[in-house]
């Protein structure tokens, strides 16, 4: 917390700016897109503050940075979702989940966690299915599969026993779960029924998710520092 906390101050300030300004979604503009994306830009800076060499030499960190970049583009598209850019945003976030899954890796496999995540993802899609039509019938299915896979890889990484770096893996796990909550709220609000305080729920869980996933990227850095001290 002492080492990483100060680097996250700009993110917290940018998040406060977003919630204080609370720009109406009915009048999309480049300014509103900037305000919405600003916390994610700050997370770019957070990772870049660890050094270019660190990002280049650690694929997981560089993939999380790439995911944050695609997330910002997706956020911008969703500002104009009523103008027909919702699918573009969906595509950007699908790429984000692929990058995050790759960053979390396939070890340990943890098939039980995968089965559980498969059941949760299938249940969500089964509920949404009757509300979907046209291309969204299969686009949402693919998206849920991708975010469910990302959630599996994040959960699988948590090893509470004999794991010195649990806090970063736990951070990835909680971040992935919050991302799923955020996206499920979007889907319910857009396709099914109005969700009370949907925008607050969506953005609060989304920003928290992205911060926690960005924090998980510093794991390899912490491990190196520990080895040097040893």
Automatic annotation (TrEMBL):
Q: What are the subcellular locations of this protein?
A: Membrane
**EC number, UniProt record:** 3.3.2.2
Organism per entry: Vidua chalybeata (Village indigobird)
Q: Which reaction does it catalyse?
A: a 1-O-(1Z-alkenyl)-sn-glycero-3-phosphoethanolamine + H2O = a 2,3-saturated aldehyde + sn-glycero-3-phosphoethanolamine; a 1-O-(1Z-alkenyl)-sn-glycero-3-phosphocholine + H2O = a 2,3-saturated aldehyde + sn-glycerol 3-phosphocholine
UniProt xrefs under InterPro entries: TMEM86B-like
Protein known as? lysoplasmalogenase
Family, similarity comment = Belongs to the TMEM86 family.
So which domain of life are we looking at? Eukaryota
What topology in the membrane does the UniProt record assign?
Multi-pass membrane protein
Q: Please spell out the taxonomic lineage of the organism that makes this protein.
A: Eukaryota, Metazoa, Chordata, Craniata, Vertebrata
Residue ranges annotated as transmembrane are 30-49, 61-80, 86-106, 113-132, 138-155, 167-188, 200-218
Provide the gene name from the record: Tmem86a
Its GO CC terms are:
membrane
């Amino acid at each position: 917390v002492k080492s990483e906390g100060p680097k996250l101050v700009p993110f917290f300030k940018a998040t406060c700016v977003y919630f204080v300004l609370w720009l109406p979604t009915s009048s999309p503009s480049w300014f509103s897109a900037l305000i919405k994306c600003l916390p994610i830009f700050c997370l770019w800076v957070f990772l870049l503050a660890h050094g270019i060499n660190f990002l280049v030499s650690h694929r997981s960190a560089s993939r999380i940075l790439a995911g944050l970049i695609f997330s910002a583009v997706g956020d911008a598209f969703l500002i104009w979702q009523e103008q027909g850019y919702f699918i573009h945003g969906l595509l950007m976030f699908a790429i984000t989940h692929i990058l995050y899954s790759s960053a979390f890796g396939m070890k340990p496999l943890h098939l039980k966690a995968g089965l559980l995540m498969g059941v949760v993802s299938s249940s969500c899609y089964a509920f949404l299915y009757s509300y979907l039509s046209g291309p969204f019938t299969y686009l949402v299915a693919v998206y849920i599969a991708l975010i469910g896979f990302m959630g599996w890889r994040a959960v699988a990484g948590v090893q509470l026993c004999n794991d010195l770096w649990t806090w970063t893996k736990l951070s990835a796990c909680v971040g992935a779960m919050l991302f799923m909550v955020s996206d499920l709220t979007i889907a319910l609000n857009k396709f099914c029924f109005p969700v009370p305080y949907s925008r607050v729920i969506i953005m609060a869980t989304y920003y928290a998710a992205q911060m926690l996933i960005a924090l998980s990227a510093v794991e390899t850095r912490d491990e190196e520092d520990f080895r040097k001290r040893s």
